[in-house]
Amino acid sequence: MSTKHMPPNDDTQHVAASGSHPHAAMPLALAVISHSRRWSPGLVWLIPLLAALIGGYLAVQAILARGPTIHITFHSAEGLEAGKTRIKYKDVEIGEVIAVSISPDNKTIEATAELSKEAERFLARDSRFWVVRPRIAGGSVSGLGTLLSGAYIGMDAGKSHEMSQHFTGLDVPPIITGDLPGRQYILKASELGSLDIGAPVYFRRVPVGQVTAYKLDKTGRGVDITVFINAPYDQFVTPDSRFWHASGVDLSISANGLKVNTQSLSAIMLGGVAFETPFQTEKNGQAEAARIFTLSNTREQAMQTPDHEALPLQLKFQQSVRGLVLGAPVDFRGISIGEVSNIAMEYDAPRKDFNMVVTIQIYPSRLLSMSSNLDETRLHQLKLDKMVEHGLRAQLRSGSLITGQLYVALDFFRDAGKAQLGHAKEMDVLPTIPGDLEEMQGVLQRIARKLDKVPFDSIGQGLDTSLKELNATLHTVQQLGGHLDGKVLPQTLETLQQLQHTLDAASQTLQADSPLQQDVRQAAQEVTETARSFRSLSDYLERHPEALIRGKQGDQP
Amino acid sequence: MPNGLLSTAARQGLWLCHGCSLLCRLPQAEGQWRCPRCGAPLHRRKPHSLQFSWAFLLAAIISYIPANLLPIMRTEMLSGTQQDTILSGVVYLWKSGSWPLALVVFIASVLVPLLKILSMLFLLLTVHLRSRWAPWQRTRLYRVLEVVGPWSMLDIYVVGLLVALVRLQSLANIKAGPGAIAFGAVVVLTMLSAMKFDPRLIWDALEDDNEYKTHATK
After folding, report:
1. Which of A168, A190, A209 is the last residue of a domain?
2. Inside any domain, residue A198
3. Structural domain of residue A519, as residue ranges?
4. Which end of chain B is more exposed for a tag (fewer CB within 10 A), N or C?
5. In angstroms, rounded to a whole number, what is the distance separating the alpha carbons of residues B60 and B63?
């Protein structure tokens, strides 16, 4: 290269040397021919082509990434802002609210949201949307992050195959998202108690689930509580599991002393549900989802044999039911098998009197558990009338003499009069017999009636005359007494004095130093000596019987 | 102006070296020439001026669309992520009351590139059509274009500054969006287009003789 440039350099030196001349005469440098090859200028069009390609790619991508537009209705637009509020699924942003408007009927608001392309598959008909705001419920605080960032719309993908673009937003975030493993069960309770959505479910005091929803049942007579048991624990729910309110403090006093039974502190404060499966349960295996259980008030109640079916019975009493309250137990030989559900009155035309109509619910299963191989339904119809034939009767009995509380007792009364199972208003009418007190009353009445027949008047009159005669007799006795007093007594006294004298004389005679005594003693001594000499004689004679003939031999050998 | 009567260097076969400003005489009109002093290639007009200018301008026009549609800045704050295009930023500034600033941004980032593109389009078209209309004003327009060009980079400058400054990790973070690249491309491409444009072409149309016409448009 350097050699190529040499000649021009010489030229310029030459030009510079002659530079002092006027401009018209100035010689000009001659251009040199160039042989260097240059790249084609057409290549510059690659730049707009590249720009077009990139732009086109971006445009295509933008069009492809454009997802569906959905409409969600909410009760309130609190926290929702067009262009700012995001829609998140598992905290991943999948869309944005682009408009918030009031629905045509002015009752709700409608949020229009644009979702990303991949969110399309989440739009099942049963997908749920809710606004995530800071919330304190069920002992837990949630959505604190939204204090700073503002609310966003949470989403839970549904499982339905049907797609939709119109949704109704939830007021409260769902406790359980659709993909959480576990099972849902329904508990039937008489009342909600202190339970709330989010209240824990305990199994052996381990929190294993939550209350997810509650609603009044269709008849309005109970509450259906939906609970969700998380996955590893739902295997412990068997068809025979028992659920009860774990909200309260269970205080019992027994022979063993005071016993306080509680669940965890949070359960006391917020309420909760506990469940357990009786140890000797026969039905093993997991309970299928959405099975219906009964929610009892206490553990004791729950662990009793469950009452699968309540059998209503009607009882007609002809006595006062004062002291009988709703819920009073129905007792069969000491075991509660039901309760009183209604007390009413009806006019009994033939008798021209009122009947007290008491409706009771009895739980045949409680009887079943005692007689194991009885079929429920058969017990319901067949057995009951047989039992009535055998003397099954209802009776009102006094539970407490102090409070006067009554309860209904069912029992067999062999000596009861013949009766049959009646029917009224789709209910069996069980014959009754009068209660204990009533019976006693009847007995007393009968006694009184008999007493009434006794002729107390004539008895009284007879008694009166008798008494008079008795009086006269007594009077005579008195006179006799007076007579005795005047005449008999002095003579008696005299006789007694003479007796005294005789006795004194006898006493003197028998004294120790009396001559009679000494005589007697001497005589006795003499008799003794006589006896002794007689004994020695008899001894001698025994040894020498010949002495009787020869006489005493003296000292001869 | 009686242009046709004026003597120009080109007409006398004299070219100026763009490298060292040496005035050179061409031995003949045809062929490629180099400066005898510095060796730089000699040309009567900027080489392929119109072709290059057109290419850059077209690329700028294409880039102008994503530059305005795509977010130029992505702000991540505790309160969530926000993406702003140039226009949404202007609207935000206008709504929040600082309309002088909105005006500045609007002029610097939207109006100026647009006017630049339109002006270049106008200049190129008139040169192409060998228009003789208002050459003096057109030359002036070109001078304004060259001066104003870099000012459009204001937006890119602000975004670049914010991206570098605001890095509070979880609290706040600013990232340049894809629109920023497109916008930068628009500014650079329009500047290149203006640079490649030879204003002398405006006056060429006024010259009667077509002696060097082939060179001019080459």
Report:
1. A168
2. yes
3. 515-550
4. N
5. 5
- Asked if A93's CB is within 8 angstroms of B81's CB, the reply is yes
A316 with A444, same domain: the answer is yes
Q: What is the mean pLDDT of the segment spanning A41-52?
A: 86
CB of B101 within 8 A of CB of B109? no
Cβ-Cβ contacts under 8 Å between A and B: the total is 110
B181 touches chain A (CB under 8 A): no
What is the rounded CA–CA span in Å between residue B38 and residue A117?
A: 61
- Write down all domains in chain B, each with its CATH number in brackets: 1-44 (no CATH), 45-217 (1.20.140)
Task: Tell me, rounded to whole angstroms, the distance of Cα B159 from its chain centroid.
Answer: 21
Suggest the residue from A47, A53, A80, A144 to mutate for an interface test with chain B (most B CBs closer than 10 A).
Answer: A47
Q: Say whether A96 sits in a helix, a strand or coil.
A: strand
Q: What's the distance, CA A262 to chain centroid?
A: 13
The pLDDT tens digits of the residues spanning B98-126 come to: 888 888 888 888 888 898 999 999 999 99
B19 touches A: beta carbon within 8 Å? no
Residue A504 falls inside a structural domain: no
Give chain A positions within 8 Å (CB) of B78: 148-149
The model's pTM is 0.50
Q: Which of A277, A303, A329 is the last residue of a domain?
A: A303
Per the structure, how many domains does chain A have? 4
Residues A262 and A337 in one domain: no
Greatest C-alpha distance within chain B: 73
In a domain, A54, yes or no: no
Partners of B70 on chain A (C-beta within 8 Å) are 58
Nearest to A91 by CA among A143, A126, A127: A143
